[in-house]
Design a protein that fits this description.
By secondary structure, this protein is mainly alpha-helical. The protein has four helices and no strands. 73% of the residues lie in helices and 0% in strands.
């Protein structure tokens, strides 16, 4: 997939995520900007780490193992932000991490639907 496709998928996932999260508790505007930047970075990072130099460019950063780790990080950061009463700076960092993980995981999920798929 192309970089622009990954960014669009990440941004769409981000809007759904922030909409759902905002319905639980309000997200400040500065959180929104950081999360938007983090999801874009997460959406393009796998191809930055492993550029598509040939048809077999998918290595460790495009694997199911990394996807499981990233989804775990996303879930952990989401639970922390929802359950714990944290200072605003810590909430901002946790929200940024969750948005980065969201972008990265949707990049890998999108790549898994291609003919090449993801390596084990």
């Amino acid at each position: 997939m192309r970089k622009g496709t990954h960014i669009v998928i990440g941004i769409l996932a981000f809007f759904v995520y922030t909409y759902l999260l905002n319905s639980i508790h309000a997200i400040p505007v500065d959180f929104f900007f950081l999360g938007f930047c983090a999801v874009i970075i997460g959406s393009i990072l796998p191809d930055t780490l492993e550029p598509a130099t040939n048809s077999k460019h998918r290595g460790v950063f495009h694997s199911w193992r990394v996807l499981k780790c990233i989804v775990s990080i996303f879930g952990f950061s989401l639970v922390i932000s929802l359950i714990l009463s944290l200072p605003d700076v810590t909430k901002l960092i946790v929200f940024g991490i969750s948005c980065f993980a969201l972008g990265y995981s949707f990049h890998l999920l999108a790549d898994s639907t291609t003919k090449r798929g993801l390596p084990a």
